[in-house]
Amino acid sequence: MMSIMGFFFRLFILFGLCSLAFSNEALGSNEFPRPLIVQYPDNIIETRLTELDEEVKLQCTSWRFSVEANNIGPWKTIPRECLEYVKDYLMGRGYKMDLERASNEAKVYANTVQLIGDGKDVWIFDIDDTLLSNLPYYQEHGYGTEIFDPVEFDKWVEKAMAPAIEPSLKLYEEVLKSGFKIFLLTGRYENKRAATIDNLINAGFQNWDKLILRDAEDHGKLAIIYKSEKRNDMVKNGFRILGNSGDQWSDILGSSMSTRSFKLPNPMYYIP
Amino acid sequence: MMSIMGFFFRLFILFGLCSLAFSNEALGSNEFPRPLIVQYPDNIIETRLTELDEEVKLQCTSWRFSVEANNIGPWKTIPRECLEYVKDYLMGRGYKMDLERASNEAKVYANTVQLIGDGKDVWIFDIDDTLLSNLPYYQEHGYGTEIFDPVEFDKWVEKAMAPAIEPSLKLYEEVLKSGFKIFLLTGRYENKRAATIDNLINAGFQNWDKLILRDAEDHGKLAIIYKSEKRNDMVKNGFRILGNSGDQWSDILGSSMSTRSFKLPNPMYYIP
What we know:
The structure is a homodimer.
Chain A: H1 4-23, H2 34-68, H3 83-91, H4 93-112, E1 121-125, H5 135-139, H6 150-159, H7 166-178, E2 181-189, H8 193-202, E3 210-214, H9 223-236, E4 240-246, E5 260-263
Parallel strand pairs in A: 1-2, 1-4, 2-3, 4-5
Helix pairs in contact in A: 3-4, 4-7
């Protein structure tokens, strides 16, 4: 988009050039003042850049759609040409707006659900980039352009400094107030339990009913398998999974799926 | 976005005004030629509209993602403020690009699947806005801003004039060539069988293995239930559902889900 400032600047220059020209002797009506001709190539270059931006925007929006609609196969890094697009999306209003919309849709649904109230009505939340934001980590690691580095990421997790995703915290509190049991189902390992609890508490989350992490036997399992198995266990134990919030399709699909699921945006990484 | 044409038009006007001014007597250096001042308020209005457009674009993109990620609850019409956005998306390159991307992702997957080749490897296609485009109908009916009118829509279906969605036709042909059986599973009723076959043939589709329409007992069933039942039957009969293409989440979710599914974009309507 051509910015307002840029547009006014251009207008200002043109006004200036016209008035400058007027102070000189009059030219023939079919001659253009030279400075305007000198400006011309600059404008063309800028227009081309704007067009390129629009093309990249269109392509990267389409890529993001294929991620969020779960059409795309497993991917390791975001397309390199989408770095600026993804950064703008994450740091600008787009990501925030999408998170709020997902949270609001979930709230609308949560308020229509008739709970039985026997302690078996469950809402599942994933943790990473669902309740807690790893955006500060990905800011330091190329916004998804770098291959995932488990050693570096573990250090970040141990710091327990991930901030809450605010719209998710609001949903969490609303769901809790409505009488759902909250089950946290994360791909993190048991050795991160203490750091995870610290981080959740520091970020304002409390009163969950279960915090389920991967134990030794879950090592190496695809997330979609591990999470399905944990949901199967819940169903076997008589729980009704009524809501499920996650940023990965592997949080949502598989067996014992929730009555309704809410896919939070995540154009940074993919977990199969 | 300020279009190239718009920008050159503006440049052309300013050039013209300057040269027009030069042909008159010279003005003082702090006086602006009047026509440029008259132009000024117009430009401000246009800039404001551009800004408004950006906000609407952001909000409507967010709405579209909540549709495509299946976060949104059932909806009857698109948000009225998104009419221009949805129209631009559908008639411009965005929709085409998203359709092509969904088709390409499906092709990549189809080529990796190891078929058993016993005639039981199945790819399911939905029909409306998956194989056949109802865009010409929705162009005449407010691009999703009007409540669905089954009588009018039936007339359109009977005409059998819906064009192929080209990227889906390419996928269809590739999948067929690879040795999949193609099952067409549509929410249309049996009384539309002849018109549907005519339309499919006219649009270039052929050699499907089954065309499944709703019969009397499916009347009033939610699409997600009806389509799940039909998929259950396929599985009971030994078919392996390896791929599924549809523009609605009710084509994809439910029981006997496909190994991989591909959600085609559709910001025009929602079928539960």
